[in-house]
Design brief:
108 residues, DUF952, DUF952 domain-containing protein, alpha+beta, 3 helices, 19% helix
Length: 108
């Protein structure tokens, strides 16, 4: 699972072993994406981020994840803060010609 975040936000919102994005307070969950949907999600929601990151998350380390329909797909939402120890990697999220591309570490 992946979470898209701006680097500044990632640094500012990690405390006490947890990451708490604004969506947790506003909507009650952390937005996650499967790899096959993350490019579209990032382009739609994070095109203006100054320094976008992809946070790679180990699903087996998460608690209450629910899949909810949207745009013809099921998107995972974590109902609670993201435990930092569930994060397996934090990668720069590159763009080519203004569009997000998967980092080389995540390409098949």
């Amino acid at each position: 699972m992946l979470h898209v975040v701006d680097a500044e936000d990632w640094e500012a919102r990690r405390t006490n072993g947890e990451y708490r994005p604004p969506s947790l307070d506003a909507q009650g969950f952390v937005h996650l994406s499967p790899a096959d949907a993350v490019l579209a999600v990032a382009q739609y929601n994070h095109a203006g981020d100054a320094e976008p990151l992809l946070v790679v998350v180990d699903r087996t380390c998460l608690g209450d994840v629910r899949y909810e329909e949207g745009d013809g797909r099921a998107f995972p939402h974590l109902y609670g803060p993201l435990p930092v120890d569930a994060v397996t990697d934090v990668l720069a999220f590159p763009r080519e010609e203004g569009r997000f591309v998967l980092p080389t570490e995540l390409r098949d």
